[in-house]
Design goal:
The complex is a heterodimer of chains A (about 110) and B (about 110). Chain A is mainly β and about 110 residues long. Chain A is built from no helices and 11 strands. Chain A has strands at about 5, 10-15, 20-25, 30-40, 40-50, 55, 65-70, 75-80, 85-95, 105, 110. In chain A, strands 2, 4, 5, 6, 9, 10 and 11 form a 7-stranded mixed sheet that branches. The radius of gyration of chain A is 13 Å and the shape is globular. With about 110 residues, chain B is mostly beta strands. The chains are: A mainly beta (about 110), B mainly beta (about 110). At the A-B interface, strand 4, strand 5 and strand 10 of A face strand 4, strand 5, strand 9 and strand 10 of B.
């Protein structure tokens, strides 16, 4: 079965712009979570959605938001981009709880210039 | 604050030897622990997990040990192979939680 698909793979944006990243989970998985990976901070949890509802949110500013659609696909949006938002954004899907085995996509590499 | 810590940013091991990767955590509510492996330009791949009711879990060459009193876990890879060279992330979660808390990773290099 197909894995977790994230699009686009690479993105370059200018400070102040906004960006939307997309994630298609594994078929049948209803939980989608997002992580930011930076060299200094490792992987940090952004938020998690299950059946279109946000169940948990990490310590990120309100510029970071997300949503999940009825087909479990998820998008995350970052508004008013800052240089520090440059990172690899990873999406993970699991059948229910995130603490069961989660499958990650390849990520979207966002560069803010 | 970092609730999961991997204090060794890198580790180099000879092929055939044992690799031991360590992880410490501070949140006593964590009761499920996972190890992920990550190659460059790829997402993390699940390797092995352990719940707090166990102190050891094995899967082939990979064994995870959990010491709850010390809030410490370790991943043993025996024997190490060059293909094991990657970044290894330790992660932890609460049973009722919906987030994985990751360490910053340990870069393992297995040399021939």
């Amino acid at each position: 079965k197909a894995g977790v698909t994230q699009t686009p793979r690479y993105l370059i944006k200018t400070r102040g712009q906004q960006v939307t990243l997309s994630c298609s989970p594994i078929s049948g998985h209803r939980s989608v979570s997002w992580y930011q990976q930076t060299p200094g901070q490792g992987l940090q949890f952004l938020f998690e959605y299950f059946s279109e509802t946000q169940r948990n949110k990490g310590n990120f500013p309100g510029r970071f938001s997300g949503r999940q659609f009825s087909n479990s696909r998820s998008e995350m949006n970052v508004s008013t981009l800052e240089l520090g938002d440059s990172a690899l954004y990873l999406c993970a899907s699991s059948s229910d709880r995130i603490n069961t085995e989660a499958f990650f996509g390849q990520g979207t590499r966002l560069t803010v210039v | 604050d970092q609730q999961v810590k991997q204090n060794s940013p890198s580790l180099s091991v000879q092929e055939g030897r044992i690799s031991i990767l360590n992880c410490d955590y501070t949140n006593s509510m964590f009761d499920y622990f996972l190890w992920y492996k990550k190659y460059p330009a790829e997402g993390p791949t699940f390797l092995i997990s352990i719940s707090s009711i166990k102190d050891k879990n094995e899967d082939g060459r990979f064994t995870v040990f959990l010491n709850k009193s010390a809030k410490h876990l370790s991943l043993h890879i025996v024997p190490s192979q060059p293909g094991d060279s990657a970044v290894y992330f330790c992660a932890a979660s609460e049973f009722s939680g919906y987030a994985l808390n990751f360490g910053k990773g340990t870069s393992l290099l297995v040399t021939p």
